[in-house]
Structure of Diaminopimelate decarboxylase:
Amino acid sequence: TTTAAQFPITLDTIAGLSIAELAEQFGTPFYAYDAAKIVERIDDLAPFDVVRFAQKACSNLAILAWVRKHGVVVDAVSAGEVRRALAAGYDATEPMPGQPGTRQIVYTADLFDREALDLVVEHDLPVNCGSPQMIDQYGERCQALGRERGVTLRINPGFGHGHSQKTNTGGEQSKHGIWHEQVADCVERAAKWGLSIEGLHMHIGSGTDLEHLGQVCGAMEKIALEVGPSVHSISAGGGLPTPYRDGDARVEIAGYHKLWDATRDRLAEAFGHAVSLEIEPGRYLTAESGSLVAEVRTVKQMGSNLYYLVDAGFNNLARPILYGSYHPMAICHTDPAHAAGGEQDAIVGGPLCESGDIFTQEEGGFVSARRLPHAEVGDLLVIGCAGAYGYVMSSNYNSKPMAPEVMIVGGKAELIRERQTFEDIVRGENVPQWD
Ligand code: LLP
């Protein structure tokens, strides 16, 4: 077990570049991704046959192209994500170069909206069905086209676990997947349409732990034996935790892989053919690579509480207000004189007209103070581990433009998304002519 690098509370550089200079060049707030960190995490997962990035975590085209360049395939949960994958260079029908038999894009969801179903059929994409109705809707289209296809099934094993109830995707409190007791029925349903069950998939939650993830192996083995030798691939889903706090251990991939590898071996033996082992991480690949940088715009004392208010809010990073998620934070002093101010407990919030616009909130503690260096207006706040479910969950609340994204590769900072303009925000709005 290795411990993640300590996240210091003062910081001057990201991926070797001066944070103050990045802020000057791109303005604040902005997201910065250290591309090398993504590659390190991809390398950790080398024991798995297939690494499929859950792009919902961080779907900028440049990030997708970067992970593709490093051998990672992708999943898509919507028509938009299918289009992103295609735009980033993934091919709909060819296998991944160097990975025979591995399709580059898989559509994984609990339902097809009409646009997604049309797009999947148009591009003949592989489908991972999370409901009986998806099997019917896809099967009907395949039959009409005279296509004989295989599908994979996403099974809800009846239990789940996540860093928050909102990210627990197993058990009957979760809407996800095909209920484990209905697998036989779904195999029959699929057969009616001429669809074979080629693979099985389970994803029990995000930010879970190895103890719970390990239980999935047993559930997978049981279901796979029930479905039988048409199964050629199993997916362990995503959910690998990432270290957010100092001292958090990094998950031990070798041990986790060993559990799955043994499951896969037993299935291969039972079926008499090879079974491929996939993993589908989102957070694990990108969380640690990303930082949200904002400028301190107000420092004020409210009774016993000291507030640092910055120019980024939950419109930029929603995880603290949504889940009470903890993110490491550091101050980058733009004036060296400020560094002499020592440390203090501060509550860090944003500009939005809403009391919950606080980054230092944790489940159960709405406004909790954090030990941070003294900061003044003009200093920069760096929110770490923001590369997964950061930018992608941002909004235009309070008519704030979405922040730019910057990717640092080999010491060079590239703008991979421009800051929105006011025109972008109101695009498509229309004031009718009233008389
Ligand atoms: N596969 C499936 C089918 C999923 O639904 C998800 C995440 C993943 C893989 C990737 O999970 P990961 O490895 O990133 O934990 N917004 C929340 C997380 C929502 C996750 C949704 N599904 C957060 O900020 O923590």
Summary: The longest helix spans residues 253-271.
